[in-house]
Amino acid sequence: MLVPVNLKLRWFAIYAGFGLLLSLIITAVLTQVATRQIEEQVGTSLAHVAEQMAHQLEEGMFERLRDLQTAAKLIEVPETGAQQERLEQLIQALYSSYENYAWLGITSADGEVLISSNNVLEGADVSARPWFQGAMQNPYFIGDVHGALLLESILNPDGAEPLRFVDVAVPLKRPDGSIWGVLGSHLNWAWVQELERVAKRGLLDLPAAEIIIVSSEGQVLLGPKVNDDGRLQLRLSEAVARQGHGLQQWPDGAEYVVGLAVTRERQVYKGPEWQVWVREPATEAFKPVRELRWQAVWIGLAVALCFAGIGWLSAGRIARPYADISSKLEHEVASRTEELRRTNEKLERLATTDSLTGLLNRRALIKQAKQLRKRADRHGQDIAVVMIDLDNFKKVNDSYGHSVGDKVLKKLAKLAGKLVREVDIVARSGGEEFTLVLDGSDEKNAKAVTQRLAKQLREAEFSADGETFTVTLSAGVASWSSDQEFEIVLDKADELLYEAKEKGRDCVVAAFESESNTKEAD
């Protein structure tokens, strides 16, 4: 018996409507899940880059401050011509050691520039400058980004893009503690552009992403212009305020997936509170979701037609197309999630590993050292910290080139890695500085280990341009008690390292035998 046409139409309409409704529900649910996952994954990736950039800003400012503090220990009041000449050489050497120093100078307590890099501003009165006043009143001064005033016409005579500086300054003291002057520096803000290029290597999967740095007053220091006055004023979304990443509406009304990090105050210094934003337009971030949605809609329409035609004959075949839709959507989401996971792993490696030697960097060193401290406290074990610095390493780079210098750094890293145990920590904490954290070791044992490392390095021969040369190291060894902060122990080991330098280099000085400890005991 033939089925009436109107009954067929009813069945067709019922099954078609049911199939279409079901496909729309599945599409809505899956795309909503995909949207949340991609927002979380992209936001996390952007937040990682923002944190990495903020950390590099902190490291850069801290290294420059430490350069000046170290140099200040070597500077005495120039009372003779020989002392004046030695300080001029010291300032010029420090200026040449870092390409982004725009200016370095020594002033008197009245603000007169006595000695400066390339003799720029010598004799000028800088007593009204914030960096001079800040250093005269505090242990150090780190300023925010500002335009060049006295130096603009000297360093930028062609009137190109205006110069912007960050000031770092420290007081110069006599042995009795009185201040006789200031050691000040202007850092060219262009150094941050190099940090930006490095950070963007972690954004290869997010080509539309941008990095924006904002000062504590809301002024945009790096990145695209957001409005006419160059200031960024945002009311943080709930997600960004809570977890540091998420959807955020910008002043132009557009939505972005953003990651936010703020430069933090360290235990040993406080710098400017810069905000680091990394953003990607929401339209770009959610493009895969839109593509999945349209695919699901078209497939859903086709399935609805098939569902209407054969659903009443074979209920078992109805769900199969939807399973295909679900599988494809899940596959796309899983693929995107896997790509973002690999990006996160890559960012983690960049954030914790020194790219040249493969050792831990300073950030990872501090984290792992504190974990080692907790483990040692549970077992009642000693810990020793060793700061190592290659002697006259700048001469190696100047004489044979940076590629040869890199080989020396890699050799020292390899020797140190073989010499210590798996439970110990080896890190490259600076340019030619390395740090060892030795678990279960006192100062004498740590000194013996370091002396073996020094001997192995001394016996290693390097060759370049037909010449053979050797390299030595100096080191300071300090014990780390459970009631000390790791950064304090690093500073102590660093002081002992400089004591080793003063003794003529190529030696290891431990705290129990150092001259500074002997003087304190007296």
TrEMBL record:
UniProt GO MF annotations = diguanylate cyclase activity
Q: What is this protein called?
A: diguanylate cyclase
Q: What is its main location?
A: membrane
Q: Which InterPro entries does the UniProt entry name for this protein?
A: dCache_1, Diguanylate_Cyclase, GGDEF_dom, Nucleotide_cyclase, Rev_trsase/Diguanyl_cyclase
EC assignment = 2.7.7.65
Q: Which reaction does it catalyse?
A: 2 GTP = 3',3'-c-di-GMP + 2 diphosphate
The record's section on NCBIfam families has: GGDEF (TIGR00254)
Print the keywords alphabetically: Cell membrane, Membrane, Transmembrane, Transmembrane helix
Q: Which part of the chain is the GGDEF domain?
A: 381-513
Question: Which SMART domains does the record cross-reference, listed alphabetically?
Answer: GGDEF
Annotated membrane topology: Multi-pass membrane protein
Entry keyword annotation includes Membrane:
yes
Any one GO CC term of this protein is: plasma membrane
- Pfam families given in the database record: dCache_1, GGDEF
Q: What domain of life is recorded for the organism?
A: Bacteria
Cofactor(s) listed in the protein's UniProt record = Mg(2+)
Cell location: Cell membrane
* Transmembrane stretches, start-end: 12-31, 296-315
Q: Does the keyword tRNA-binding apply?
A: no
